[in-house]
Amino acid sequence: MSVDEKLIAAIDVARAAVDEVADAGVVGEHQRAVEDENGMVSHHFGCTKPGYVGWYWSVSLSRSPDSDAITINDVVLLPGDDAIVAPVWTPYRERIRPGDLSPGDVLPPDEDDVRLVPTWTAGDGEEQTADRFFAREVGLGREWTLSFEGREMAADRWHEGDQGPDAPIAQQAAGSCISCGFMVSLAGPLAERFGVCANGMANDDGRAVSFDHGCGAHSGARLSRSAAPQELPPTVFDTVGADIDEF
């Protein structure tokens, strides 16, 4: 026999190896022998362990060309094509969503976060001053500020979210935020597109809203004639007032 034929025929050796490491009664019938690289052969056995439907035991065998001794390389439990496996691991940073942070949680930005740039290179606005580098060196002001990409990402997110023009409440509003007396203007590059709602009765109180957003709490909102309180006609007979008896 050739080396491969000896390994392929070593089913009993492979079963003895898997029976030694597996729990009793969880090894099924021999399924196949697969020739691997470097002259090795893997024997596959079915797995009957509850919860592992579609999995199989794999025993890797090899031997030296000038020896009849068979070496057991490893015994592993592997998922087959129809096996139920856990989803692909997603790093925590990629799974976290807005609102997931609890008191005490820390979420530092990435070192190469495109949303941030050193303040001395971009400034808080459009200004570029020669002393920003020295201010950073001595710890004056913010070390980091929004990059142009970061501002655009924030603006797009706000505009497409619940504080933008496509929100259902904005679609039904009679007026837009740009004409509302409760809107507080922002300073900086985003001031041309957004403001902050200061109406304590509005859903967006304290939030950045786009100029073309809107809601029913607009400062110019008025009730229709049918919805306004109706003035009652004068009473015909006064049964409410108190009678005063004169003696």
UniProtKB/TrEMBL annotation:
This is DUF3027 domain-containing protein.
